[in-house]
From TrEMBL:
Residues 2-31 form the DNA polymerase III beta sliding clamp N-terminal domain. The keyword Transferase applies. It comes from Escherichia coli. This is DNA polymerase III. Keywords: DNA-binding, Nucleotidyltransferase, Transferase. Its EC number is 2.7.7.7. It comes from the Bacteria. The gene is dnaN_2. One of its GO terms (cellular component) is DNA polymerase III complex. Pfam families: DNA_pol3_beta. The keyword Hydrolase does not apply. Gene3D superfamilies: DNA Polymerase III, subunit A, domain 2. GO terms for molecular function: 3'-5' exonuclease activity; DNA binding; DNA-directed DNA polymerase activity. GO terms for biological process: DNA strand elongation involved in DNA replication. InterPro entries: DNA_polIII_beta, DNA_polIII_beta_N.
Length: 71
């Protein structure tokens, strides 16, 4: 893996991926976050939630392809 500007390059064998990144400063510091509510989710529920999350793939420099995982 190699960070080049705002892109993370991942290479393995013949595969090469270029991923968009965001600066760490754009995210909240969770060490400073205090929650008043805690809960636990069963593994199967968490898996279903992740599978139901839409994923965007860059088909080209100008267009995006949306893939929706069915629950």
């Amino acid at each position: 893996m190699q960070l080049e500007g705002e892109r993370m390059l991942v290479r393995s064998g013949r595969s090469r991926f270029s991923l968009s990144t965001l600066p760490a400063a754009d995210f909240p510091n969770l060490d400073d976050w205090q929650s008043e509510v805690e809960f636990t989710l069963p593994q199967a529920t968490m898996k279903r939630l992740i599978e139901a999350t839409p994923v965007f793939y860059g088909a080209s420099g100008r267009s995006l392809l949306l893939k929706w995982y069915a629950v």
